[in-house]
Write a structure and sequence with these properties.
Strand order of the largest sheet: 3-2-1-4-5-6
Distance between the termini: 26 Å
Order of helices and strands: EHEHEHEHEHEHHHEHHEE
Largest sheet: 6 strands, parallel
Shape: elongated
Structural class: alpha/beta
Length: 256
Amino acid sequence: MDTITDLRLAVLIDADNVPYANIKEMLEEITKYGTPTFKRIYADWTKPTVSGWKTVLLENAITPIQQYSYSSGKNSSDSAMIIDAMDILYSGKVDGFCIVSSDSDFTRLAIRLREAGMKVIGIGEKKTLKPFITACDKFIYIEILKVAETTIAEKQDITAVKKADRKTTPPLNKIDSDLIRILGDSIADLADENGWAYLGNLGTNILKKKPDFDARNYGYTKLLPLIKSMNKFDIDERETGKNNIKHVYLRIRENN
């Protein structure tokens, strides 16, 4: 799934639990799903551990929210972020939330927002615990956003374009039997009487089973090249007669 829909999003960032180095890539990723209506970041800004964030806040129009730590070893920003999320929810000004954190303490918040009909997108590091990941509609790993920029020469080179399905960063996950099973089950869920499933609907179905699914986790920029690399499914690219546009259908390969 490349997009959920064009949502009005509240972007809430836990500065203590995500790195600031990739904030530009994070915000660019978020715009694929909608328009950030609120952009707030939470921390005790008197602490030197979050000083790196200060240089990027103005550049990206993110509003810092100060929350003092009332006791050592406690992250008081969590409660401030949760309270703000509920205030924004009841304001009726957004369609969804993007929670940027690797802290599983936001699991209950994600569940509550979804109960209220909100779409919830999580962004965090690979170390994020599964409860928070599964509480989101979609979860994106920060590590897959760390893609080396393509040079102008590479963009103009036809060979480089053909290889663009491959990323320049190592894959986070290996293609395994669990991934193949989920793909097969999802194709079966969507298949017509001849066993063919439309690729355009496949990503959404997979995310219902595995919210952190993303072709980029496996080293591919799109779902179709990932599936082709497995050599486990039949692929039918059907002409639509419109501007060389093709509709792609998949089927579980017999005797596989």
